[in-house]
Amino acid sequence: MNSKLTEQLRKLAKQVQDTRHIRDDEVQSKTLQDYDLMQEKYIVVLMAQAKIYWNRENFQMVEKIFRKSVEFCNDDDTWKLNVAHVLFMQNKYKEAISFYEPIVKKHYDSILNVSAVVLANLCVSYIMTSQNEEAEELMRKIEKEEEQISYDDPDKKVFHLCIVNLVIGTLYCAKGNYDFGISRVIKSLEPYNKKLGTDTWFYAKRCFLSLLENMSKHMVMLRDAVVQECVQFLEHCEVYGKEVPAIIEQPLGEIHGHIGKNTVTYEARLLKALFYEVIGWNK
């Protein structure tokens, strides 16, 4: 399908070039319309093909597919975004910035219209290329817009800055800097009544489980102040997580867990008990 559509696109691209010499607006408009429709079809097929390799975590192949399609797609935002993602997954942060940045700058005046993951990935890319000032400026911009929304609509939940902080915290935890990473994760969920949700809890608990695993193997030593901060955080999650599901159960899932166990409160207590066990407070 990809090969056939590539061939058709090349023919239509030639027709678009040829019609530019004709002074017939109707013919020009029709040819451009045909080209745009064919390009849409091509991008759908291209993304479906790329997703197969993405799911197999063969990011080099995804990048190869996108590089082949550059002549037809270099103006398309969906294409640019997915190229940025695949470069980011391969730690090619400098190249990823060149694709993320134009998309973010296009929506800079209403930055919360940009996906939180895109903003988070751009912030991480800045940090990884020692452009900390740019990362801080972007986060200040997100914070300012979120504050404005909170002022206009106090009950509305907004998660952009929370997700950016979660991603940065997770990155530091993955690199073994738990002191800074865990503090970032904890900061990302404040205030708990607005930021604690099923999705945000999912990412936060992964960092805590990773920390506990490394502590139990004696690969990580945590300062007492950070341990205290972790326990305090889990106690806050207990208080605010009573009505928050820990996971969203699939309607056709065969095994349904106990209703009392599917809350953030239950899982926070479990994590706190594990902390006590690992650091020997229960002895």
UniProtKB/TrEMBL annotation:
Protein name, UniProt field: Tetratricopeptide repeat protein 30
Family from the record: Belongs to the TTC30/dfy-1/fleer family.
Regions that span the bilayer: none
Source organism phylogeny: Eukaryota, Metazoa, Chordata, Craniata, Vertebrata
InterPro entries xrefs: TPR-like_helical_dom_sf, TT30
Compartments, as annotated in UniProt: Cell projection, Cilium
Gene of this entry: TTC30A_1
Repeat recorded as keyword: yes
Role summary: Required for polyglutamylation of axonemal tubulin. Plays a role in anterograde intraflagellar transport (IFT), the process by which cilia precursors are transported from the base of the cilium to the site of their incorporation at the tip.
Keyword list, A-Z: Cell projection, Cilium, Cilium biogenesis/degradation, Repeat, TPR repeat
